[in-house]
Specification:
8 helices; 228 residues; alpha/beta; 3-stranded parallel beta sheet
Length: 228
Amino acid sequence: MNRKKRKAVLDDGCMPELVSGADFDGIFEIPVIKKPDRIIIPRAIVPFSQKEKVSPSRDIALGFHEMDPEFAEVLISPSDYTASFAKYGAVITPDCSLYRCAPLAVQVTNVYRNRAIGYYYQSKGLYVIPQIRWGSDETYTTKVFPEKLAFLGAPTHSIVAIGTYGCIQHRDDKYHFKAGLEAMLETLEPDIVLVYGSMPESVFGDYLHTTRFVQYDDWTTERHGGGS
């Protein structure tokens, strides 16, 4: 096994140096990503693993809507990428998986890592858009925790990103995605929601009047000239 990737699992926890100077939110002290001074809506979202295929541009956002191993290097050494990420108009925070079957401790940790790395890049002057991801209903309700974990550390009345690619394939997936989406809209009241992947009426139809959604085809669909 690659020792560098193994370090992402062990090492010294979640690199507390990343959040030096941060504000924290909630009982889990999730690092806060602050609301930007202005809203920037990217023309396209390029996945981290495909960044070499597209020239960086100020109208493109770099995203992480892919399997976690594809961006493990960023989780391990985020400082190594600050300069290259600064060439993009925006960076969407790492989309660390929140599988519903995962222990809650893992889901909490991945929300933390998402916000910690986002805060770090924001502190370095990059334009950061929080990727909002929820897992089991414990993360988007107050069923277990006094706060909705999935939304801690994200700004209200701002811009956020979500992803549907690979997340709404089955009935249970659609149920939890829609329930989490409703909770996110109620909690964060975002002005803009970037959606990476399809926006089926059955999932989004009830909420199209609540905010502005901006949809982006996933990389494979976009490269093959598909449409939503």
